Structure formats: structure tokens, C-alpha cells
Amino acid sequence: MTKNQDEVRSILVSQPKPQGKKSPYFDLAEKYNLKIDFRPFIQVEPVSLKEFRSQKIDILDHSAVIFTSRNAVDHFFSICKQSKIEMPADMKYFCISEQTANYLQKYIVIRKRKIFTGSRTARDLIEVLKKHKNEKYIFPCSNIRKNDIPDFLAQNGYEHSEAVIYKTVASDLSDLADVNYDIIAFYSPSGINSLFVNFPEFKQNKTRIAAFGPSTAKAVRDADLNLDIEAPLPNAPSMTGALELYIKQANNL
């Protein structure tokens, strides 16, 4: 059989390689005989104590902390340690998910603390915050973050401080300069930004672009790239599901 020029044989996923032996990506690679590589396009760096102090935020001047990721938890407690701050027993913690709340036990004895959790999304957590308007919140975050929670706090008159405690920056991808993939899968606007930080003259040519989520899809289009695969779809709620639908069509399967 002659290979179709538009067949999919290789995919670059702009995320870390999944840990363990089980992943939908591994299943996809085996099922369709694909080469799938993983490479984070972005990385997280802590802000220095000096940079944090320049924000003039007193952590102990707050009664509650909002955590939306494990990165936020790690970098917040790192700043506390560097500042020699011990979190008071009555500090309240509002976490975006049960997993994030459980992760707190790395730093505090969670059974003795007041912890409130959302189901999974920022919208879920906002519903929890609505019941606690009288707290003074600190929101540890990255220099690049979603607007949902800080906008809600500001628009509804909540006392709060936004503390940038880590930075999301482009990874060095220079070793990929001469490597071509049939598909590159992106999960965030930051990944698209990293692509052009590393390769300002990037030309899409025959590379297909996959994007997960509306903000990532918008970043692809704003960069004047063709968006070939968009996830989630009604019949494919995951990136791997959307990729599989595309591969079946492209490879005439």
C-alpha cells in the first residue's frame, strides 16, 4: 500500500510524558502504529523572595488562601518557609478540587484545618466562595493565570490580594528545530506562545495542529495557524479521542 502523504504517523504532545505504563496516548500509539513523543512546551519557575516582597503582601494579614493547583501549593509554602512564616491554625484553605486539598497534607496536618473544596472547576470553587464573603483572601498564582476567580473576587467586593509566586515560561525547544511531526497537540495558550518564542519563523506547512479547550483554540487562530483538530468534541471529550477520530479519517481506517 502506498503511504498517503497526509497520513498521520507521528505526534508531538506538548506535555510531560505520562507516568506509569497506562495512558490513552500509549494505547493510541500501539493501536495505530504511531510515534508519539512528549515534550513540555512550558515550565514553571519560582519567583525569588525579593520579587515576592516587592509585591508588598503580608501573608499573615489574610484569613484564607485560595489554591487552584499543586504548583500554587508548592510555591506558596516555599515562600512561607523562606519568609520563616508558620501558617496559623485558624487559616482557612479553599481548594479547586479534592486532589488539591489532599495535596496540602504535604505541608500541614489537614485534619486539624478548615478546608473547603470545589468539585473540579473554578466555577465550582466560586460557588463555595459565595458562602464565605467575610474572609480576607490571598490568591497565590502564576504570572499567567485564568481570570475567573480574581475577577469574581474583585467584582463582588471581596477583600483579597493576588500574589504572583511562580512564573510560567517557555521551555528551551531548540533541539526540535529540525524535527517534523504530522501533528502537534497543544493544551494551553502558553504552549502556542512557547512555540513562537522558540521558533519565531515557524511555518505550519503540512503539520496539523490540535488544541484542547476554547482558549487554546483561540490562541492557535490568533497566531494565524490552521486549527485541524479541536477538543473536546461532543463525541470525543478528550484530546486522545479527538486525535483518534482525525487519524481514522486521515489514514483511511
Textual characterization of the structure:
The protein is α/β, with parallel strands linked by helices. The protein folds into 2 domains: 10-19 and 26-41 and 175-234, Rossmann fold; 45-169, Rossmann fold. The protein contains 9 helices and 11 strands. The protein has helices at residues 24-32, 49-53, 70-82, 98-103, 122-129, 148-155, 189-198, 214-222, 239-250; strands at 10-13, 35-38, 42-46, 64-67, 92-95, 114-117, 136-142, 159-170, 183-186, 208-212, 229-231. The strands form 2 sheets. It has a 6-stranded mixed sheet. Helix 7 runs parallel beside helix 8 (214-222). It is elongated. The model has no long low-confidence stretch (mean pLDDT 92).
Q: What key attributes describe this structure?
A:
6-stranded mixed β-sheet, 22% strand, 2 domains, 253 residues, Rossmann fold, alpha/beta, single chain
How would you sum up this structure in a few lines?
By secondary structure, this protein is an alpha/beta fold. It is 32% helix and 22% strand.
Give the class-level CATH name of the largest domain: Alpha Beta
> How many domains make up the 3D coordinates?
2
Main β-sheet: number of strands, strand sense, barrel status? 6 strands, mixed
Question: Strand order across the biggest sheet?
Answer: 3-8-7-4-5-6
* CATH third-level topology of the largest domain: Rossmann fold
Q: What is the helix content?
A: 25-40%
Euclidean distance between termini CA atoms: 13 Å
Supply the number of helical segments. Answer: 9
For the record, the CATH architecture of the largest domain stands as 3-Layer(aba) Sandwich
* Mean pLDDT, all residues: 92
Question: Approximately what portion of the residues adopt beta-strand conformation?
Answer: 15-25%
State the low-pLDDT regions, or none: none
Radius of gyration from the alpha-carbon trace, in angstroms: 21 Å
Question: What structural category arises from helix and sheet content?
Answer: alpha/beta
Return the string of H and E elements.
EHEEHEHEHEHEHEEHEHEH
Based on Cα principal axes, name the global outline.
elongated
